[in-house]
Amino acid sequence: MMMNVVVDYGNTSAKVGIFKERRLVDKIVFDSAEKLRGFLENYSGDYIIVSSVSVDATVVMDWARHFKAKFILTPSLPLPVVNRYATPQTLGVDRIAAACGAYELFPNQHCLAIDAGTCITYEFLDAGGNYLGGGISPGLRMRFEAMHTFTARLPLIQPVDQPALIGTSTEQCMQSGVIYGLCDEIEGIILRYHEKFGDLKVILCGGDARFFENKLKAAIFAVPELVLSGLNSILIYNVNR
Fold this sequence. Notes:
- The chain is an alpha/beta fold.
- Helix content is about 35%, strand content about 25%.
- The protein has a 6-stranded mixed β-sheet with strand order 6-9-8-7-10-11, with helices on both faces. It has a 5-stranded mixed β-sheet with strand order 3-2-1-4-5, sandwiched between helices.
- It is globular.
- The chain starts with a strand and ends with a helix.
C-alpha cells in the first residue's frame, strides 16, 4: 500500500501528513526547521510532496532522502483540477492545495473552501473541476495586531472562543469587533457565492477555524486537514500519470 508524506510549510509552522493511499493516518506539527529536518532525514516512505509559502521548498526536499519519488508543488506541477487563475505563478500553493482538497471531497459540485489562517482565503471550484480563484482578507490575529500597531493605546490581545457581544472593557470590545466582524464577513461572502452559483458545498479549515465553525449560520463542513488532503491528492495524481 502506498505510503505518502505531505509537507505543508506555512507562515508559522510546518505540518506533515502521513497517508496510506488516501487515508490520513498521522499528522505532526513542527515549530522549527531543525525539527522538521530531523524527521525527514530519518523517515522512509514511498512518495513525498512539499508545499511551502515561507521557505525554499528545494531545501526542505533535500532533507527527504528515503523516498521513491519527490515532488514540489509549483505552478508547473500538474493538478487534478483545471487552474483558471489569471496569474498562476502568483497563486499561493496552500490556496490551490485547499481547492484540490475540496475537489477530493466533493467532485462534480460547486465548492467554496475557506481557510482561516494567517489570512482568510476563499477558494472557489466549480462543478466541472475548474478552479476560478477567490479572495483574501486579513486573518484573526492579523486584525488584532493591526489595531495594536496602528493605534496609540489599544493593547495586543488574544482571541477567545466565546467573546462577549457587548464588550464592557477595551479588551472585550476588540474581541467582539474582530471575531463577530469576521463571522459576518464569512457569512456575507458565503451568501454572495450562493446568490451567484446556487447550491454549493462550503468547507472550513485552518488553524483559526475553531473560532468560527460554531458561530456561522451557513451550513459548512469543518475539515481541519483540507490542505494536507489536497496535497496528497496532487501527489497521487502525479504518481499515477
